[in-house]
Amino acid sequence: MGISIKGVDMDSQTRCKHYHSNEDVIAIRMGCCETFYACYKCHEELSNHQAMSVKKTDFHQPHVLCGNCNYILTVNEYITSKYQCPHCRIAFNPNCSLHNHLYFEQTC
What we know:
The chain is of the alpha+beta class. It has one domain (5-103). It is 15% helix and 15% strand. The chain contains three helices and five strands. The chain has a five-stranded mixed β-sheet. A hairpin with a 6-residue loop joins strand 2 and strand 3 (36-37). It is globular and about 30 Å long. One of its GO terms (molecular function) is zinc ion binding. It comes from Salinibacillus xinjiangensis.
């Protein structure tokens, strides 16, 4: 079975209508889905349910897809990646970290 990736006006590297800079090349599998979405706004537009962040206990699970090489990172790998795919070395957008609270459970 292939990887399911959805996004609004998404290109082959997972850039979408909402985020489409050269570095916007990740898709995230939310805690509520088996589908990867280009961004949380795409999830809001295309899914039929409310988004749930990935629980901290699942940070060792694969949830972040590199749109360049299709390598799937765990949340822990992604958070410590220094905004670069550990497999193909393409740069990730560092501003995505501003939305981590939407994707990944936060602890105080």
